[in-house]
Amino acid sequence: xxxxxxxxxxxxxxxxxxxxxxxxxxxxxxxxxxxxxxxxxxxxxxxxxxxxxxxxxxxxxxxxxxxxxxxxxxxxxxxxxxxxxxxxxxxxxxxxxxxxxxxxxxxxxxxxxxxxxxxxxxxxxxxxxxxxxxxxxxxxxxxxxxxxxxxxxxxxxxxxxxxxxxxxxxxxxxxxxxxxxxxxxxxxxxxxxxx
Length: 195
Description:
The chain is α+β, with helices and mostly antiparallel strands.
């Protein structure tokens, strides 16, 4: 597989204006959707706020990145995803049936791929520990992505077995979130608390 540096891939997308459009759209959508008061659940009222979603904030994340996540979680029923485990990594294709959500999805995926390449962990509160492997061993991940009518395709491979295992586990986690939204996050967090 030919490795194309992420910076080159980002430059190609930037020339198409995809990133700037996605960021503008994401900010508008998220601000509109985050207006109003939240729904809290939890025995004492301090549980998860599924409207403002404070768990999507991070010590090193921008407000725009947190808003992108909120848009994706709120619109998870529009997401479709396929995952193919490769001997040395993964191939995923993710799309939304809604063009506005698709723009946000592309921006989020490209932004996270860039963060991993730079080892710049956003430290999102609900973030899976699986991502720690990516930020610690980013130099062992070869990434290619392509945006088509079918969705955003990401191929990530590695010669490091620890990274390959993390790639495949994270792909499962993302698929669960795409299928179940925040419920999947709650279940994963409960499972980690039990271990």
